[in-house]
Design brief:
Blueprint (H helix, E strand, L loop, with lengths): L1 H62 L20 E5 L20 E5 L18 H4 L18 H45 L1
Length: 199
């Protein structure tokens, strides 16, 4: 009977210490979550600024073009391919336990720059032997601006750089932060359940 009383006397202190450590952990998780929300909001503002700057520069290029050619998808055909792609994939090495470590960074988005393959090479086998003379010609330029000529307006170049910055920098950062926020939400829910059980 004395042992039971002794255990009951020790248990509240231990559970209190465990509860306090869980509360500290929850505070740290919530602080990190709020920092991520702040970063996410700031990057979303930057993405909005980059996209609006890109569309504004594109509108300026269309307005000030002396040839009255509009820079839009109507002036290129299906041979135009994306020069920058985003590949989304989940990282299996990263578990929800790794969220607790401070320096862990998510790598769920990769940006790759690739050279588009012109479709004309697929049809060269079907052409006559006279096609050999066409092989000496230069391959189509990979920079989409060159489809509109050599001397494109500077506003069109500014538009391209704004869109590239949005795709290569802002979007991957937003996806990675969003993924980390979801993992933190799971960890916060688990910690709150543990605190409720100790009640």
């Amino acid at each position: 009977m004395a042992e039971v009383l002794l255990k009951s006397a020790v248990d509240p202190g231990d559970s209190l210490r465990v509860k306090e450590s869980l509360m500290d952990t929850l505070d740290d998780l919530l602080e990190r979550y709020l920092n991520l929300v702040h970063q996410y909001h700031a990057q979303q503002q930057s993405l909005t600024n980059d996209l609006s700057s890109g569309y504004f520069s594109l509108a300026q290029a269309n307005f000030s073009n002396p040839n009255r050619i509009r820079y839009s998808q109507d002036f290129y055909d299906d041979r135009m391919q994306a020069s920058i792609t985003l590949n989304l994939h989940s990282n299996p090495e990263r578990s929800s336990n790794s969220v607790a470590s401070q320096g862990s960074e998510s790598a769920t988005v990769s940006v790759s720059v690739h050279q588009p393959i012109p479709r004309s090479t697929d049809m060269q086998d079907e052409k006559s032997p006279d096609a050999d003379t066409e092989e000496g010609m230069e391959a189509p330029a990979t920079d989409p601006l060159r489809w509109f000529g050599i001397l494109v307006p500077s506003t069109l170049r500014a538009s391209q750089s704004s869109f590239k910055k949005a795709v290569t920098e802002r979007v991957p950062f937003l996806v990675n932060v969003s993924s980390e926020m979801k993992e933190l939400e799971v960890e916060i829910r688990r910690t709150r359940k543990k605190i409720r059980k100790l009640g």
